[in-house]
Amino acid sequence: MLLAQADTISATHLYICNTMVVSMTKIAFILPDNRLIKRSKEICRELNLEDQVDFYRCDIDEAITLARVLDKTESIDAIISRYGIAHVLMQENLSVPVIEIMVTGQDLAQAFFEAKIRAGTKHPRITYLAFSNMSNDIQRLSRIMGIDLEICELEAPEDITRIIDTLPKKSTDILMGGATSMAYGAKKGFVTQVVESGDCALREAFKSAQKVILAKNNERRHTEEFITLVNSVREGVIYVNRDRKIQYVNSQVENLFNIRFDEVKGLDLRKVLSDNPQFNELYTALDNCESRKESYHDILVELNSKWLAFGIEPVIVNSNVLSLVITVMDVTTIQETEIKVRNEVTKNKFYAKYRFDDLVGDSPEIKETKRLAREFAAVDTTVLITGESGTGKELFAQSIHNASARKNGPFVAINCAALPVNLLESELFGYVEGAFTGAKHKGKAGLFEMAHHGTIFLDEISEMEMYAQSRLLRVIQERQVMRLGDDKYIPVDVRIIVATNKPLAEQVNKGEFRQDLYYRLKVLTFKVPPLRNRNGDIQVLSKYFLSHYCSKHNRIRTFSKDALNLMEKYSWPGNVRELRYFIERMVIVTKQKEITAQQLMTYWDDRDFGEKTENQQIQQTPIDEAERIKQAIEKAEGNISRAARALGIDRSTIYRKLKAKSKD
């Protein structure tokens, strides 16, 4: 209830009407004196604070009840009062600040001057009833003004009646103090003088209240920002002081431990969590964190059949640990987040583009291969794909992935022949910081980790060194990897598809490939047929690639019938890859709309069709691999690129094979 006329209000009436009282209140102005309230309202209008202040006239006892209600309903930001009321309210441990209207030296001098006039003597005897928070300058001012002053200090409201009742009337000329005490003194027959605060003191009180409110609002805003911040993180946050008393917990902790902050605030951490021995490592880490001023991470605790991961950060000010911030997270949540992050990071970088419908061909051979691959896609077993270089083994691997239950996971492909053995290991299995010279500062996840919940495709598996083969075998068997330089295993859920253009059985017999790994890989296996064995597919693919590259390069080209027939006769040692890029070349370099057989002969990359039988023999004769490479190089007159194209392999493969042969 807003007391616009400053009428007397009872505590009971206030409590009943508190919803009306608090709705507009910002500052509560509580005084027992109507005259001071009237002057205070004038100051409010002067300072444009009329809408921010509610005025209440009540005695000390009513003021206490009023303040408690206002504080409980959180309707005000500050209380302004004076003398005894302010002193008493300051001892109430209210959450709102109490601003005291001070008594200035000018106010005291005015009161002493009026008291001397009323006493009718130059040196009156004055008894001053003052609470202990009053200024100590009263004695000095009284001596200056020639006043015989006695100060009676009040500690509590009941002291007013006790002191006045026992004070002899003849011992004092004037009784001086606040409005409440002077009202009682007048009843007891004393000559009284109320010490009133002047306008300067009132203005200063209002300004102080505004400053306090501004600071409180800033603090409230910062607190809300802090609460919003800590509640927005996925980790649970527990803030404790040096005595391990809880100062704050966020909503995640409330949900995780089924507690409420207002119920655990100020309680010992051990009482809130548990005395379970499972938490001993956490409590030890808290002690060490404070003594060593170090952070701790990944403290695992099992609670109610679930694992929690704790971390501790010390709050250090001036080299002293003032408090500790504890973070906690359900390991299951961490794992789910890890999966989501992995998928988000890898979905644009590691994805399978091709599906079975993208595999062009109508031959019985390719149809049967696709049928078998589709069956393999339905299960999660390791797949071994064999076939000559350029037949499209990776396209089949991608199609298997996209037809499997892992289609929404990453598809990670790597050519084992394209990297040196040491680099291949670090790429596949990752490494920790300091594992080797040049390692990234925080280490790096390997491709197996990046393929988590997806598929990894290892092309040219035959080129993998024996040590890497043993590590691959462990991944297949244990479904976990260990980064280079680390001593911990990381679980991975990944399907493995491998491919080779070499007969692995022969490599096993030669001791170049692990037998146990070979048997692990060949559980499900199929061979992609070479293009020359795909009856009718050369023309189908030729027309498909012609349409594709005409669209890409904005050209109009067609094949003559004799051109298609000629391409059908060629062995295509580079298989589909060779056919594809040869047709792109023809689309670009030919000028006529129709591509004829004669033009094919002209642009056949330094080879005529008389070579096809020899090239085919180079490809098919079961002679020593090094000798076959040597023949191809001689046939190409030392041109490695031409030799590689004739063999259907990469230039890097030729260099590597020659280097290996020279070591032998």
Automatic annotation (TrEMBL):
SMART domains: AAA, PAS. Residues 222-266 form the PAS domain. Signal peptide: none annotated. InterPro entries: AAA+_ATPase, AAA_lid_NorR, Homeodomain-like_sf, HTH_Fis, P-loop_NTPase, PAS, PAS-like_dom_sf, PAS_fold. Keywords: ATP-binding, Nucleotide-binding, Transcription, Transcription regulation. Gene3D superfamilies: 1.10.8.60, 3.40.50.2300, Homeodomain-like, P-loop containing nucleotide triphosphate hydrolases, PAS domain, PrpR receptor domain-like. The keyword Transcription regulation applies. GO terms for biological process: regulation of DNA-templated transcription. The keyword ATP-binding applies. CDD domains: AAA, PAS. It comes from the Bacteria. Residues 359-588 form the Sigma-54 factor interaction domain. One of its GO terms (molecular function) is sequence-specific DNA binding. PANTHER family: C4-DICARBOXYLATE TRANSPORT TRANSCRIPTIONAL REGULATORY PROTEIN DCTD, TRANSCRIPTIONAL REGULATORY PROTEIN. NCBIfam families: sensory_box (TIGR00229). This is PAS domain S-box-containing protein. It comes from Succinivibrio dextrinosolvens DSM 3072.
